[in-house]
Amino acid sequence: MADAAASAGNRTLLQIEGLNLFYGDAQALANISMQVLDKGIVAVVGANGAGKTSLIRAIAGIERPRAGSIRFKGSEIVGLPSHAICELGIGQVAEGRQIFPTMSVAENLEMGGLLKRARPRAAQAMEDVFTLFPRLRERTHQAAGTLSGGEQQMLAIGRCLMGNPELIMFDEPSLGLAPAVVQEVFRVIKALNARGITIVLVEQNVAASLRLATRAYVLETGEVALEGSGAELLADDRVRKAYLGL
Fold first, then answer.
1. Alpha-carbon torsion 155, 157, 160, 165, what sign?
2. C-alpha distances out from residue 53 to 104, 134, 171, Å
3. What is the mean predicted confidence (pLDDT) over 6-22?
4. What is the H or E stretch that residue 100 is in?
5. Among 232, 204, 207, which residue's Cα sits nearest to residue 45?
6. Do the Cβ atoms of 36 and 200 come closer than 8 Å?
7. In a domain, 163, yes or no
8. Is 29 within the bounds of a domain?
9. Residue 179 belongs to domain with CATH number
10. Has residue 53 been placed in a domain?
């Protein structure tokens, strides 16, 4: 059984090769190649404008690359609509949370459970979300827009979990949150990974991201500038000087 688990952990879940993305004539991604192993945590770090969100949007099917390949579990997903990519098991917690502010907490979660892959276990999934985030249970009927920033981030994560994802892409999950809440968000990401969910973490909090990551990539002006294990990049002088102020 242990050998099988190790084998699963070494399986490539998401493979990106030669990805090029343009907005008009402006190139946002240039020949991006990266690998996400099953049940791993891959951090994608870099300054504002480096191409991190563009990468997430390309994987999610929101933006169509001009060239390159994105394969999920061995199948090409470039060209698929976003809803089809969600049905395959790729979830996203978007930058800025993007909850439905006038809808209740429960209604937001129900929206996340509308995928065909999620419907058979929607009730159990909601109970799992409330177990993970007890404060959401207390605010079931409260309008989502009246929640604190940290609670809205919990709701965004919970809504994603309702879709029964195998891989979750987090886009700047700590943005605008108090330090104590940031620590809680990273604790939750680690706990979700321990449950077997593969994580792609796009985050400006470079130190925290690299401490979590099994693999990491540094983007600069749309290109992969550095790659390695999280520990390797955390110890790299170029990363320490450019992003950690050391």
1. negative
2. 28, 30, 7
3. 83
4. none
5. 204
6. yes
7. yes
8. no
9. 3.40.50.300
10. yes
Instruction: Tell me what the mean pLDDT of segment 205-233 comes to.
Output: 93
Burial of 10 (0-12, 13-18, 19+ CB in 10 A): exposed
Helix ranges restricted to H, the chain: 2-9, 52-59, 82-88, 105-112, 122-132, 134-138, 149-161, 179-194, 206-212, 230-235, 237-243
Instruction: Say if strands 198-202 and 167-171 run parallel, antiparallel, or are unpaired.
Output: parallel
Cα gap 156→146, rounded to integer Å? 14
Number of domain units in the chain: 1
Angstrom distance (rounded) from CA 110 to CA 113: 5
Q: What is the DSSP string of 16-78?
A: EEEEEEEETTEEEEEEEEEEEETT-EEEEE--TTSSHHHHHHHHTTSS--SEEEEEETTEE-T
User: Domain range spanning residue 51?
Assistant: 38-63+81-243
User: Is residue 113 exposed (0-12), middle (13-18) or buried (19+ Cβ within 10 Å)?
Assistant: buried
pLDDT, tens digit, for every residue of 129-163?
A: 999 999 999 999 999 999 999 999 999 999 999 99
Closest listed residue to residue 76, CA positions, set 66, 88, 91: 88
